[in-house]
Amino acid sequence: MKTYRTAIIAAAAAILLLVAGCSSGGSTSPSSGTSQPPAASASASASTSADAILIKDFTFMAPASVAPGATVTVTNTDSQAHTVTSDDGASFDVTIQGGATATFTAPSTPGSFAFHCTFHRNMHATLVVK
Ligand SMILES: [Cu+2]
């Protein structure tokens, strides 16, 4: 019991010493000259793959063609979500949220695959696989 109390007193004394030491330190501005810029917007579009569909202003911009089984990246620059849905309802179907990117796998068989957006039935385009 006595040692416990002694320890508390010692701790209190140490804290007092620390506080005193700090306040007598003088200059209290630890601002070093290295101001780190906040994570620069490094959105350098590294994905310059040809296997890409761009959606802008409710319009599909499809590549001339993609290879069978290729991974097709869809970039939606609109604020609304869109889908890339094959008209046959089976070849591919992916939803791309507004301002987001998604991928789907192109059909493994060559051909022309008409597709649409299920949210906006006036959006149509064709994916050529060859
Ligand atoms: Cu749409």
Automatic annotation (TrEMBL):
Pfam families reported for this sequence: Cupredoxin_1
Domain EfeO-type cupredoxin-like, first and last residues per copy: 70-129
UniProt xrefs under InterPro entries: Cupredoxin, EfeO_Cupredoxin, ET_Amicyanin
Protein name: EfeO-type cupredoxin-like domain-containing protein
Signal peptide feature range: 1-25
Organism in which the protein naturally occurs: Lacisediminihabitans profunda
Keywords: Signal
Keyword Signal: yes
SUPFAM superfamilies: Cupredoxins
